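Input:
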Amino acid sequence: MFWKQRQRQICLWIFPLVSLMLMISILGSNQRLILSEDAVMYTYIKSAVQGKVGYGFNVVNDNGMSFEGLEPGDLLLGGYPGCAYGRFSHVGIYAGQGQVIEAYADLGITVQPVEHYRNYTEICLLKVNADPGVKQKAVDYVRRYERHLFYPTAFKPGERIWNCSKIMWRAYVVQGLNLDPYDDLWIAPDAFYNSPHVRILREKGGAAY
Amino acid sequence: MLEYCGKKGAQLINTVLRLYMIHLFAILAVWLATYYPGLDVVLAVLYLLVVVREVRYHQSKSRWRIFVVVLTWQLTGLFFSLIILARCTMLELYNYAIFVLELWYTPILPFLSMLPTGSLEKPLYYYALLGMPLLYVAVLPLFNKKIKIRRLSDPGNDM
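Output:
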């Protein structure tokens, strides 16, 4: 009877204890992030306090963006008003021939026409400063994971669970190019905008967040 | 009679609350464990063992009560799954429903990440997520120990 009661208590408290240990472990090995105001977690917390949750509010929009000049491997950023994680909520990689590879919750990693980026209120086209061969390899890397699982708060480590930013970041990191200027636990689309390895080809919007 | 109903009701509520607590902290634990690839799979297996144990040892001889316990516990998943299936665009819920469903089923996310991609319109994990509330409600009550004991001893004597 005593052992049965003990088992019931263990079942109830095992996950809270494991969560606490994992939090301590992760923050312990990333202590600089606790003090860094640029850390993505503080962006999420500030947004939550302001009532912003998720990617913002879909608005019917046509930003009239031209996609001329994009090369395979270049990045496209898109955002809506009220986005919880900065100016941009989404990133895709241009695959050539009017197609972009990106990730969504219901489609996983997917190939879509580039034109839908005209629906975003905020949009930015980024040219990645790398050899065309490296950029094509990045596109091929992302394409390899087509239809794989999307999870909104995917951490950087691992190759089973993705979000739109992580797959783009990893596609270049495996080739020795780290597009994340903050070296954070996650990567938000805004990080690509601030990366020293890209230059802005074209952008529209520019609302302050 | 009232005392009996109160006692049974309290047992049901107790089990539902325990399952909620286990599930909510398992969401946090498995999510954090994805930082250490592989550990998330271990915790997902542990989650299933713990949940099966909870259902298995629930003090009820009625399969309908176990069914109610699991259904009440999985109402969140069921609600958002139905929102998606019905394409209900009320209050912008439809746009966020898939995110909430993924977050709610974080404890079994490692298993979803290992599913084959499939060749349907959407990836297999998407359909698995939509069907997860039904899977929980249909399969978990089968693990209840008391139900098996009742069938062996006296099938007609339902308290």
